[in-house]
Every structure is written in C-alpha cells, then in structure tokens.
C-alpha cells in the first residue's frame, strides 16, 4: 500500500509533462474520417502458433509420433493453443515441441530439432482473437478488444486494424548478441507499421501492446531512428506491460506454472517454460526490484533478490539458463530507454500479486511453503508496471500518460468493460488529437 501515493504522484508528474494540451477538436472520431491505424501486439501466449514436424523430429513416444492425427496442408497443425496439452501423454508431446534450445556456439535460441514453427496470417488479428478457433468461448484473447475497437471506435479489420502475432517463446537480446527470431519479428512489425500508415493516408499508427508485447514494442522504437518513429508511430499504448518482470516468474522457473489448470504435470511444463527465452526476459530486474528479498530457499539457506537471479537459476537446477540470462537478457531489463513517441501506460492495480516466496527444506521442486502477496495486477507487481514511468516522466521530451485501472487484472485489461471503455476513450482522443484532456482526471 505504501507505493500507492507515489503512483499518484507520478501521474501528477506525468500530467504536468504533457507537452501541449486540451484543444478540443470539434469533429467526432470515426465518422467517415481517416483514423490512425491500430496495430495489436499480443503478450506471451497471446496468439496461435503453428508447427510442423520434419524427419529430424524424434518423438519421445508413439503418441507423439502420431499426434495430431489430422494435420493441414504441408503438415502444419496448431501447436498453441490446443486442448490436447491437458491430456497426460500428450502434454509431453506439446512440451517437447514447444521447447527451445540455446545454441552456445551460435549464441542464439533454436527450435527443437525437427520442429518448424510459424504464425499464420501475420497482419491480421485472426490468430490473436482466439487461441483456439474451435473453443472461442474458452480461449478468447484479444477478441473483445478488437471487437470493441470495431464497434465503438470505427475500426475495420484489414483497413485500419491490424494484428502482429509472433513466436512468443523467443525474446530479444542485448546489443552484440544475435537474436534471429526476435529480430525477424521486429522487422516484420516495422514493415506492418509502414504499410498500415501508407494505407491510411500516411497517418502514423497507434501501437496497442499487451504485456510482453509492450517490451517488444519498446525495443522496436528504441532500435528505430527518431525520424522513423515520428513519421510512423503516433502513440504507444501499453496494457499491463511488465517493465521490470514479475516475481511470479520466479515461481514459474522454480516449480512450473500450470496457470491453475488441473491434471497438468507441472514438472513437464516447467522444463518447457524454463526453455523459453521470453520467460527469462520476464524475470524480476534489479532496476525495479533492487535488493528486496523475493525468494527464500530454506534448503539452500539462501535468499535471493533480483540481483541474485543467476544464483537462483543455478540453485533451481537450471544452469543452462545462467549464461543466456546474464549476457543476453539481463541488460535489456536494465536499460529501459525512452520510447521517443508519446506513451500511454494502462496499469491494473489492487489485485493480489505474488511478492515473495519461501521454499522449504524439500527444495524448489516441491513448490513454495509460503507466498506473500502485494499490489499489482495479479501477475505483474505494481513496482514493475510503473517501473520506468518516473524516469520517463522526468524527461521533458517524453510525453507520458498513466491510467490506473483499479481491480483490473493482467488479462482482464483485455476484457473488462471498464478497461475497454478506457481504451476506446484513449484511442478516440488520439484520433481527435485531444489526448490527455479528460480521462486523467479520474485520479
Ligand atoms: C543493495 O546492496 C548493496 C550491497 O549489497 C548496497 O551497496 C546498495 O546500496 C544496496 N542498494 C539499495 C537500494 O539498498
Ligand atoms: C544459514 O546461513 C546463516 C548465515 O547466512 C548462518 O548463520 C546459519 O548457520 C546457516 N544455517 C545453516 C543450517 O546452514
Ligand atoms: C545477492 O546479491 C547481493 C548483491 O550483489 C550479494 O551481496 C549476495 O551475496 C547475493 N546472494 C546470493 C544468495 O547470491
Ligand atoms: C495535433 O495537434 C497538434 C497541436 O495541437 C498539431 O501540431 C498536430 O499537427 C496535430 N496532429 C494531427 C495528426 O492532427
């Protein structure tokens, strides 16, 4: 609770640093006028991912050899999401296909041998509206958001509304390290932004990014020259961006996170989750969490802050993650450059969020014996959600708005009525060129 007043203070700072203000446009957004195109950038696990198996693939079981029985043209099938992951012998097939490998010689991540992956329909929102088109009700992801933009803000799929799905298992690396998959995505995203602008009378785009998508979007901006940013990006709008990672991610690495789904073997899922480069990116950063003890291991008689993540990775038995984390990933979290375009950060607050964990004498495998909760969006800690905001607000050149959504959870921000209303107001305001006028007053 201590942090709450400081968030409000930051918001006040943010308001003061708004460059110009408050000229009320007389036209109304949508009404036949050209809108700023919106590009939706999903978070981790937030779009469908397809796979195909080649001769190099060596299945761990007969089930994995034959599953899935029905495959599409060229042998492609939906790897994520498919409910078969919940069925015991098939969980293992899923995990061995999702697994990434760090190639030390190449200093880069690779798919499992014999597994090719792709996203379908890049540029369209189709693969991020639902994670499984056959289970729309259960696996809706950005559909509510996209539909709201269509119905309430005048957007139209393919005209001025686009989606940028990606292979979310991969991350990006600090300068000097190759990152083939992640860099290829940034390049695709850049071209999509350019073509979206060109198709809309040259109007710069609004990047609307959820969770991990916000980290990718920031890197796209940081790696683009200022004139490109000014010409192509009107505003970055982040939803629940985990700027400094989350403590919950340490639980994922230690014991596996089945997201509350019963019957799933956590240890199988844990190994797959550990292998994901983007999961390393979501570990708590020293910049945001400092010296605070986040995890205690009674077995090792040690406590770990965000500065001890390498030791933590060793102690949980994941030595393979230490070097890529240290060299490639940690520097990304330490430098959170100014976006260099106006930014609106929407953050959910007031939802119990894992703040510290105690693992007992049984070790990490057995799961935590004590969990303490603090403020955040249920997944990401408040300190992380507002991580770089003070620094950005202090910069005279950086236009910044922060919108707090009390009681809105990490993924609820894509569905809750109140959150969707705020997003529409923000997008409308950008299209009317009156950003920052009224909605900040709710603080
Ligand atoms: C963190 O700990 C180091 C020494 O372990 C100390 O030098 C530093 O001042 C501490 N930082 C904070 C923010 O407490
Ligand atoms: C645990 O570490 C503390 C110091 O960090 C030490 O005083 C204590 O004896 C250790 N306990 C065990 C059981 O090793
Ligand atoms: C954690 O990091 C701090 C500061 O770098 C260091 O003093 C401490 O010994 C580390 N603890 C462990 C368990 O590695
Ligand atoms: C928005 O308003 C500012 C000043 O109020 C103006 O300089 C700018 O050109 C406007 N942008 C658009 C896209 O209309």
Report on this structure.
Residues 1-21 form the signal peptide. One of its GO terms (biological process) is lipid metabolic process. Keywords: Signal. InterPro entries: AB_hydrolase_fold (IPR029058), LACT/PDAT_acylTrfase (IPR003386). It comes from Brachypodium distachyon (Purple false brome). The protein is of the alpha/beta class and 443 residues long. The chain has one domain: Alpha/Beta hydrolase fold, catalytic domain (Rossmann fold). Helix content is 36%, strand content 17%. It is built from 18 helices and 15 strands. The strands form four sheets. A six-stranded parallel beta sheet has the order 7-1-8-9-12-15, sandwiched between helices. A four-stranded mixed beta sheet has the order 11-10-13-14, with helices on one face. It has a three-stranded antiparallel beta sheet with strand order 3-2-6, covered by helices on one side. Strand 13 (353-359) and strand 14 (368-374) form a beta hairpin. Helix 3 (88-98) packs parallel to helix 11 (266-275) and helix 6 packs across helix 18 (417-432). The longest helix is centred in the middle third of the chain and has 19 residues, at 180-198. The radius of gyration is 21 Å and the shape is globular. Mean pLDDT is 90; it is low at 1-30 and 436-443.
Mean pLDDT: 90
How many domain units?
A: 1
Total strand count, please?
A: 15
- What's the CATH C level? Alpha Beta
The CATH superfamily turns out to be: Alpha/Beta hydrolase fold, catalytic domain
Kindly report the spatial arrangement of strands forming the biggest sheet: 7-1-8-9-12-15
Major sheet characteristics: 6 strands, parallel
The coarse silhouette is: globular
**CATH architecture, please?**
3-Layer(aba) Sandwich
* Discrete helix count: 18
| Beta strand % | 15-25%
Provide the helix percentage: 25-40%
CATH T-level topology: Rossmann fold
Q: Which ligands, by name, code or SMILES, are bound?
A: 2-acetamido-2-deoxy-beta-D-glucopyranose
Strand-pairing-aware structural class: alpha/beta
Uncertain segments of ≥5 residues (pLDDT<50)?
1-30, 436-443
Distance between the termini: 16 Å
The whole-angstrom Rg is: 21 Å
